[in-house]
Structure formats: C-alpha cells, structure tokens
Amino acid sequence: MKRILIDMDDVMAETGLKILDTYNTLFNTNFKKEDFNEKSFTDLFKADNYLKVRTEIGKSGFFRDLAVKQNAVEVIEKLYKVHDVYIVSAATEFPESLSEKVHWLNEHFPFVEWQKMVFCGYKHMIKADVMIDDHTKNLDYFEGETKLLFDAMHNQKVTGYTRVTHWDEIGKLLL
Ligand SMILES: [Mg+2]
Questions:
Q1: What is the predicted pLDDT for the residue at 43?
Q2: Whether the predicted pLDDT of 104 surpasses 80
Q3: 7, 10, 133, 134: which one is catalytic?
Q4: Is the pTM of this model over 0.70?
C-alpha cells in the first residue's frame, strides 16, 4: 500500500477549461485548448486581463460546478480501495473554494472520506510515496519516490517529468 496525494484542479477537475471559458466570455475572445499546445497562458492572455479572471476565480461558485476529468472517478475509486489516498488541494488561495471543494468531492467522489481531504497552501511538508499534480512547483519539493505530472494546458512546455495525460495511464502505473 502506498500513500498517494492527488491534486484537484486540472487533475480531478477541468479547472483550466473553465478558466479558458471565463476568459473568452469576459474579453470576447475565442481561445481554444489547442492554442496552448504552443503557447502558455501568459503568452496568450494579456496580463491585466488575467488579473480580472483571477477575480472571477475568487468569487463564490467558481469551483462548485467544474467538470470531472474523464475516468477520474473510476480510477480513483479503485486506487482508494488498495492505497492510502489523500486529496490534497492548495485551496486556501481562494477562500470561497474551500466549502465548494468539499461539496464537489462529496457529489462526484462520495467514497472519499472527509478525513482524506487536505486543503492547504504549500504541499512540501506532506509526506507520501506518490504525488499526482499539474504544477512543477508542487512536484519539485515533494520528497516521495514517484512524481507524476498531469498534462495540462499550462504545462505543455515542461520537460523532465513523468507526464500522464489520462487517468487510465495512472491506473496502469499504480493499480
Ligand atoms: Mg492543480
């Protein structure tokens, strides 16, 4: 049995797609997911505009209706049965998100007990064997044996990590 830390945004939930939709709605643009294969958010988005998007992310409701990543429920439920799984989200940046994330997990991942939900800022002090995250800033300071970078729009140019693009791949690695 391994202790596995699973991030929420852009790992369990399609947060990046909602950010993209929010940006397109606010600024009447038509960016698509594929546009980020070559460029990062900061290359494509105007900095002032992105600050306005962050204000939207901080408002009530943003995190409550996020779509679930394909096959995340099925694979995480299997992992949960055989490993010591924790859902770990750096959520305190957006205080309104805290209760929304609990309700979202209860709705879509009802098998995850409240004791296995960890909302924090930094993640480096958490000890485990495996971390699944879309941000190198979290993976870089993780001391466990396995670091999996979940493919996301914002990390297309990142190299040097074990990249996973679908939950089925994680199932093959860890089940
Ligand atoms: Mg994330």
A1: 81
A2: yes
A3: 7
A4: yes
Handedness of CA 134, 137, 138, 141 (dihedral sign): positive
Q: How far is the CA of 133 from the centre of ligand 1 (A)?
A: 6
Identify the band that residue 100 occupies on the pLDDT scale cut at 50, 70 and 90. very high
Closest by CA position to 8, among listed 71, 74, 85, 91:
91
Q: Residues whose CB is under 5 A from ligand 1 (ion)?
A: 7, 9-10, 134
Domain positions in the chain are 3-13+67-174, 15-57
Question: Is 140 annotated as catalytic?
Answer: no
Clarify whether 7 is annotated catalytic: yes
Distance 82 CA to ligand 1 centre (A): 23
pLDDT of residue 111: 98
Distance 175 CA to ligand 1 centre (A): 22
Fold category of 3-13+67-174 in CATH: Rossmann fold (3.40.50)
